[in-house]
Specification:
This protein is 19% helix and 42% strand. It is flat. Helix 2 (26-33) crosses helix 3. By secondary structure, the chain is α+β, with helices and mostly antiparallel strands. The N and C termini lie far apart (46 Å). The protein has three domains: 2-60, no CATH class; 69-186, Sandwich (Immunoglobulin-like); 187-288, Immunoglobulins (Immunoglobulin-like, Sandwich), CATH 2.60.40. It has helices at residues 2-23, 26-33, 37-50, 112-119, 126-129; strands at residues 59-60, 70-75, 81-85, 90-99, 103-108, 134-145, 154-162, 165-176, 189-203, 208-210, 212-217, 221-226, 241-243, 249-251, 260-268, 271-284. Strands 1, 2, 4, 6, 9, 11, 12, 15 and 16 form a nine-stranded mixed β-sheet that branches. Strands 3-8-7-5 form a four-stranded mixed β-sheet, covered by helices on one side.
Length: 288
Amino acid sequence: MQDYLVKTLLGFFVMTITTSIVTSNSLDFLRALAQEADEEQAVFDAVEQTNSISDFNIKYPPTNKKNKDWVKVKLSGSTHSHVLSKGQNYELKCMADGGPAPQIYWIRGGDIERQIDDLKRPNSVYDDFTSSEIGPAKIESKYIIDCASKNDEGPIYCVAISGDKVEWDSTIILVNDNSTRNLPCGTRRLPVITNHASTVLALQGTSVVLPCVAVGKPKPFILWETAEGNRITNYIFNPRYKVLPTGDLLIDSLEWNDMNGYTCIARSNLGEDRASTFIYPVQRDDGR
């Protein structure tokens, strides 16, 4: 019964949007959903809810539009503090939604405003992924603590930057020296994907880079597959697809048919970790 209700509601949702677009200009429809920054966020939320909207092709305003940047950030399971045992391995997870695609940074220590200003300086790494051609995206990042010690104690901030917008969430790490769980520190660690985009909206005709960063001991190597399980091999799977030396996936000249899920696999002789990205190619509204 629940499955029936879900399918019925989803069908109604898609049908309503499709009808609205058919009966009016698609850009006007998006503007009716919300104004300025909320326009992007409404479209992003719709795609995020279904990850399967293929019955209509959303038009996106040209890149010189004056929509405001927006970003939201949240530490998963965030509490005031996390108390760790000495030697414990631990992961903090942070999620950021934003338009344009946000970047996540982990900052420790005080004077957070100064550290954020340093990140936003021209020619810094901050500029690499953020682009006016890339629409809203959801980015997920993990902060890895290996063999916790007193050096790991203190406040830690997850900072998300999207255009001119900056938001952060924070917690405090405490390490209990007197814990009975005094864990040994190992030299080997399973692969963990520490940064990827779970959902991306990007303009058709542009080049898009899907990030995938992983850590592990030994260092894992990175593979990419489609949702159907097809391995993406440079120049063989599709000449527009390339796995970069960094492990990121480049899709050149994005097309409508590229809408799909893409899975990053970080693998070593100890095991593997997987993270998927859903990409939605958005139709331009400037005739290009």
